[in-house]
Design goal:
Layout (H helix, E strand, L loop, with lengths): L1 E5 L2 E5 L3 E5 L10 H12 L3 E5 L9 H11 L7 E6 L1 H11 L9 E5 L11 H12 L4 H7 L3 E6 L9 H9 L2 E5 L13 H5 L2
Parallel strand pairs: 3-4, 3-5, 5-6, 6-7, 7-8
Antiparallel strand pairs: 1-2
Helix pairs in contact: 2-3, 3-5
């Protein structure tokens, strides 16, 4: 914990912390850019925790939100969330049910979605349907922060780039559309994140 002097009195300053929520079928080390992010945030004295979500191959809203409720105990205005794919949905639904008095610094969404039109199997459709069809109260989410950044790729095979308009409309998110990053699984780095976390 760092301290700084204010008018001759030592005042503690809270350290920024970042919680990263991986995607469907993922893990704390599944995406190439996770390692880069950990190195960069550590260099900047920002605490980062890559969460290991339960039942990753069959993600359920209730299980993932319950896991976040049970795992995350100290949220404040120095807390950031970063989600990949369905991890973005998990963060949104977690924020939706938090008490109104809790404020966080912001969220970064990478390949987040509200629609998945290209699912290929009935199993995928069955898993994804609750995430797509269960309503979200965006007014409740915006109580906790109005600071959102969302990344999309112009060639994502899963997430339509048109979903970027929904993130902008529903959350007021700043949108960055990258080229040729597909679903960001093989992406090496996303430097714009670091500017957002300054």
């Amino acid at each position: 914990m760092r301290a700084r002097v204010v008018s001759g009195i030592f005042k503690k300053t809270k350290m920024k912390k970042v919680y990263v929520v991986h995607g469907w079928g993922g893990s704390p080390s599944s995406e190439c850019w996770f390692g880069w992010l950990k190195r960069e945030l550590t260099k900047r004295n920002i605490k980062v925790d890559f969460l290991e979500m339960p039942n990753t191959n069959n993600p359920k809203i209730g299980e993932w939100v319950s896991y976040l409720n049970n795992t995350l105990k100290e949220l404040d205005e120095q807390t950031y969330f970063i989600g990949h794919s369905i991890g973005c949905q998990a963060i949104i639904r977690y924020l939706e049910q938090l008490p109104e008095n809790i404020k966080v610094a912001g969220c970064i969404f990478v390949a987040g979605f509200f629609n998945l039109p290209n699912l290929k199997t009935q199993e995928e459709i069955k898993i994804a349907r609750p995430w797509i069809e269960t309503p979200i109260n965006f007014e409740k989410i915006n109580i906790h922060t109005r600071n959102f950044l969302a990344f999309f790729s112009n060639d994502d095979p899963d997430v339509p780039v048109s979903d970027s308009k929904l993130f902008k409309k529903r959350l007021g998110a700043k949108i960055i559309i990258k080229e040729n990053e597909e679903h960001f699984n093989e992406t090496q780095d996303i430097p714009e994140m670091l500017d957002f976390l300054k």
